[in-house]
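U., I forgot to send this yesterday:
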Amino acid sequence: MLIFLVATLPLALAMPRSKRAVDFFNPNLNGGAMLDDARLQVIISGLSSPSVLTDDGFLNFAKAIGFSTECLGIHLGGPQTANLGDGNGFLNQTVELRQDYGNADVGTCLESLIGGNHLRAWRQNGPQADSGALFLAVSQEENAAEDHNIVSNGYDIGRDMLSAAAIGTTSFNGVTYSTTGQNITGLLSPGSAG
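Result:
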């Protein structure tokens, strides 16, 4: 299974890089897993700009790459949990965002109707592995009539769509980001083996 790691720095803020020393800690080494109810297959590096790793900073970055908050603030599903091996155990997702189809204000309403890409995020910040990295479960989902089930190969499709949108230079709300990516193997076994 291919995991995609991104590191992003806002150019406009000229923030110093994080004082953390690692991209992330492998959750598998400390009782965690790269699986929640879905797959965690994108990691926003803990070495990214500190402002990107905050809740507000990540939301602004997500809007720069085509994601936004739930349609009219309405969410009907329950939160998913993940254990990132950081000593916090299983925690609910920090945020769930949906593809905004080019309109950060109401575009997610269209995604709710016709389907599209969406993500859930968790922060690795516990006492045993505090990288500050954000672990994302990204997937392409069907429309509302199909109960937003994941399309065939939807985790790979979602990961690839997010990485294509993120790599390079993007901007939102006056902040410009420069994002690089790296493919990592070996964190999650292919198929259902993991």
